[in-house]
């Protein structure tokens, strides 16, 4: 349990804070007695320590949520309305889900079906994908292929390659890349040439810079909501939890 190391620190703080605050009015003997009384109380009621730690964590979570909301508001245009990301789902939906994805990330792969189920079953979600390769050269190649397909083949081709890459077994070699392009009725020479373009390099740099501003350092990471009520979700959530959060944001 992550809060256990805080327990002895909290106990020490409780034992010392009260006497320190009143050190001018307590004698040494009184301070010693008070420390003993506090210690005895905590030993008799150890649940107080866990209650205090839980409250501390709740306050930290609330502070983090406030910070996340501020970061989303500041970066809203780049999050929700950039000119290069794929957008699907209900384009007129009342709620947006943005996913920062790395195709080599096992949790992104695990999240795929849950995310698509949520978007399909909700019916009123605008879905945006941010290519965010952070797990090495294969991740980079995969994102470059996905963006190249989007630029040359459009939204439907991108949706197909997105699923293909998240379910791909093995490395993305040149042979596999060209085969995927052919499957999508695209010119493999054009696709592979576009993958190395300065334009795609710039898009990936923009996505990384945005992630840094949002303090995102892992995948999958989601932004759900909108500029005024957005919430950062750091990590995988099953579809039912996505539904629950969407309902909360809509209330």
Indicate the topology.
Blueprint: H1 6-21, H2 28-44, H3 47-74, H4 76-80, E1 86-89, E2 95-101, H5 106-122, E3 125-131, H6 137-153, H7 155-166, H8 174-183, H9 188-195, H10 198-213, E4 221-225, E5 231-234, H11 239-250
Parallel strand pairs: 2-3
Antiparallel strand pairs: 1-3, 2-4, 4-5
Helix pairs in contact: 1-2, 1-3, 5-11, 6-7, 6-9, 8-9
Task: Walk me through what this model shows.
It is a single chain. This protein has 251 residues and is α+β, with helices and mostly antiparallel strands. It has two domains: 69 residues, no CATH class; 175 residues, Glutaredoxin. The chain has eleven helices and five strands. Strands 1-3-2-4-5 form a five-stranded mixed sheet, with helices on both faces. Strand 2, helix 5 and strand 3 form a beta-alpha-beta unit. Helix 6 runs antiparallel to helix 7. The two termini are 33 Å apart.
Offer a few descriptive terms:
251 residues; alpha+beta; Glutaredoxin; 2 domains; 5-stranded mixed β-sheet; 63% helix; elongated; disordered N terminus
Can you summarize this structure?
This protein is an alpha+beta fold.
Which segments are poorly predicted (pLDDT under 50) over 5 or more consecutive residues?
Answer: 1-12
Strand content: 5-15%
Fraction of helical residues: 55-70%
Helix count from the secondary structure assignment: 11
């Amino acid at each position: 349990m992550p809060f256990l190391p805080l327990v002895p620190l909290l106990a020490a703080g409780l034992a010392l804070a009260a006497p320190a605050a009143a050190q001018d009015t307590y004698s040494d003997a009184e301070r010693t007695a008070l420390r003993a009384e506090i210690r005895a109380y905590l030993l008799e009621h150890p649940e107080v320590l866990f209650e205090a730690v839980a409250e501390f964590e709740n306050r930290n979570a609330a502070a983090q949520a406030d910070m996340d909301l501020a970061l989303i508001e500041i970066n809203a245009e780049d999050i929700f309305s950039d000119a290069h990301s794929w957008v699907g789902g209900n384009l007129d939906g009342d709620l947006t889900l943005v996913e920062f994805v790395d195709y080599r990330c096992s949790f992104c792969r695990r999240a795929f079906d849950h995310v698509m189920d949520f978007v399909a079953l909700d019916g009123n979600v605008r879905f945006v994908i941010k290519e965010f390769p952070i797990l090495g050269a294969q991740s980079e190649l995969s994102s470059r292929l996905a963006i190249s397909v989007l630029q040359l083949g459009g939204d439907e081709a991108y949706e197909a390659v997105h699923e293909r890459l998240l379910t791909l077994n093995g490395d993305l070699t040149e042979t596999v890349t060209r085969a995927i392009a052919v499957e999508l009725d695209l010119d493999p020479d054009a696709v592979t040439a576009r993958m190395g373009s300065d334009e795609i390099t710039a898009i990936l740099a923009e996505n990384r810079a945005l992630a840094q501003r949002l303090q995102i350092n892992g995948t999958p990471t989601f932004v759900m909501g909108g500029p005024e009520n957005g919430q950062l979700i750091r990590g995988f959530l099953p579809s039912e939890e996505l539904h629950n959060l969407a309902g909360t944001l809509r209330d």
